[in-house]
């Protein structure tokens, strides 16, 4: 049985990697597995032709039938967990391509595939300059064809995606100018220069297409897939009603704690005034990169030395400015996971602290937020958040769990990770705890908005009001609400995922202990939480047997 499961999983991963090598190799596309064989295709871009998408849908459905057949035959808990995990991932692929259809409505998909693909060609480990040039020119030469596919496929582009795509076209053009100066191409053939010019012309054509089509109202393109995504892709066993109520409860509890803490800090000021007036030590004398770089090192050592995890496998992490091609569509602090297990391949913690020529006020506001929240952003993205989670996933011997990420687990763990420095005493300053609570209020608002907009429990005006209460400007609040509505299901991952981890901890920490609980959870893979529960029960029984 085990051999059959791994054979089907291997065929499934290989098929998707061959069709979508860039998306499978990037953590930007949560609906696809991190199929390891995508590393064989660093010279090719994804095929987003309409006919190919339809063929993929059919093939993935066939894989789903094979998975369900094996599910009916499986006996061991281990096999049942892996088959259900595979099935949830296959549902994610089908929901994206058959129902969300972002390839028909989101121009960012084409731009991201093209330029994340170029970045991978340049940055992933290789045998030398000859291989690097070969795979770079392979992907560079494919950009015009990929963007033509976009022009053929795209229709009814939501305004939010439309505006973001125009900004990304400009950034991508600048990125091409930057990479053309890479010294590795100095002795290469004239193909690089020719393909660069072709790619630049293709971007100009894509921009003209976007300008000519305009954008439609975001609300007209909302896809009714929330329940399908939550139930089938995330394998959540709670109703949308229950998830919404959990988020409301979190909101009320956090807001009450904020009000109480602000009175203790300074009864003359509101918590918003305290938050906006907070400047960490060194704010005016330490540059943003130094602030974050030092915090990464301190958090790494704290996580290693506390009872949370103890010693853990580690790998290189580099703090860098967000790459030019993606800076307008990435948050100001983000994590980019390495794809392979090659220790030479780095993980990146990106921050956007420069290049805001378009809007100086936005630049100032983002820098202030980056400084106020730097300890929690670092915990979320690095240790013990995304980076550490990814390290554990890469070290799993089970090939299925090693190659699948779950948005619910991924974001739930990172949000939960922000609470560990406070719980373990690393962060104890009342004002910093207030900053943490403000971030928690934002997460609970996002969960309410995600479920509320899709189910009619919340109006757009009500959603904006929540974010305004969480200390965002009117423009920021409206932009977030518009964006959240176009990708139903993702925003709830933070609050719901953290809640489920805390529930698992309540149940299993008494038998496993604090450190072993966290290790067992991470070593089990990014499983749906009812499957993580089964896995932890097995770990608890093993521990009891050893006693």
Task: Tell me what you see in this structure.
With 547 residues, the chain is mainly α. It has two domains: 2-227, no CATH class; 228-498, no CATH class. It has helices spanning 2-19, 21-25, 50-73, 77-100, 102-105, 107-123, 129-153, 159-179, 191-213, 226-233, 240-265, 271-277, 288-305, 360-372, 374-381, 386-394, 399-402, 407-423, 430-455, 460-469, 474-485, 492-512, 514-523, 529-546; strands at 317-321, 333-336, 347-351. A three-stranded mixed β-sheet has the order 1-3-2, with helices on one face. The mean pLDDT is 93.
Shape: globular
User: How many individual helices?
Assistant: 24
Structural class assignment: mainly alpha
Output mean pLDDT: 93
Count of individual beta strands = 3
Strand content: under 5%
Radius of gyration: 23 Å
The unreliable regions are none
The helix-strand sequence is HHHHHHHHHHHHHEEEHHHHHHHHHHH
Distance between the first and last residues' Cα: 31 Å
Helix proportion range: 55-70%
The biggest beta sheet, please? 3 strands, mixed
**Spatial arrangement of strands, main beta sheet:** 1-3-2
Q: What number of domains? A: 2
Summarize it:
Helix content is 67%, strand content 3%.
Secondary structure elements and their pairing?
Blueprint: H1 2-19, H2 21-25, H3 50-73, H4 77-100, H5 102-105, H6 107-123, H7 129-153, H8 159-179, H9 191-213, H10 226-233, H11 240-265, H12 271-277, H13 288-305, E1 317-321, E2 333-336, E3 347-351, H14 360-372, H15 374-381, H16 386-394, H17 399-402, H18 407-423, H19 430-455, H20 460-469, H21 474-485, H22 492-512, H23 514-523, H24 529-546
Parallel strand pairs: 1-3
Antiparallel strand pairs: 2-3
Helix pairs in contact: 1-3, 3-4, 4-10, 6-7, 6-8, 7-9, 8-9, 11-19, 11-22, 12-19, 13-15, 15-18, 18-22, 19-20, 19-22, 20-21, 22-23, 22-24
